[in-house]
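[Meeting: bench + compute handoff]

Bench side (C.D.) handed over the final construct sequence. Compute side (W.E.) agreed to return the predicted structure before the next meeting so the bench team could plan truncations. Sequence as handed over:
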Amino acid sequence: MKLSDYEKRYSASAIIYRQGDSPDSLLLLEKGKVSLSKVRGDKHSLQKIVTEGSFFGLEEFLLAAPREEEAATAEDSVVLELPRHLAESYLLSNPRFLSELCEFLARKSRCLDKAFFLAGKSEGARLSAALWLTLQVSGNGQSPLGADEVLEILFSATGLSPDKIADFLAELERLEIVGKSETKLFLKSAEKLFRYAEYLEDKEHFG
């Protein structure tokens, strides 16, 4: 079995799957960028940007549940699409690929645990949780996402005003919790981010 036989090339703005579709394949983004959006009528709400080397739509695939979001390419992309019967046999016969999949799930679980702890707390805590999830897309915090993309995702996740989110990001940059390379943001210290979130939470409750 050659994985290259299951690579599919997409031009920019192509739909990979639609919300509600059946998850027939295991998907790995090999090149390019993919956006995941919730669709409500004619409105699209950006939830996440998938970067190279990341699985996407994984939960639905593992649970055989309908796709919860629409996946579309943000630029020309190459996606590895393994049909279910091949994906299962390939995972069992390739420990390295299976290990990479387990590592991806472990990282995501850790992110979700952190975010769940902060969910429903102060605005700063909620923003910190959403930012953590957003900048952990690539697995190491060195997110290749532009500042505008991060702003859009945080707005969708928290419902806070763009100005308030921009001020929050500027403060994190001043505190050297996040860094900026040209127009792209990356997380310098997850530990500092969550300490700052705890500080904001204490400030909210104790003044």
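W.E. noted at the follow-up: The mean pLDDT is 84. C.D. will use this when planning the next construct.
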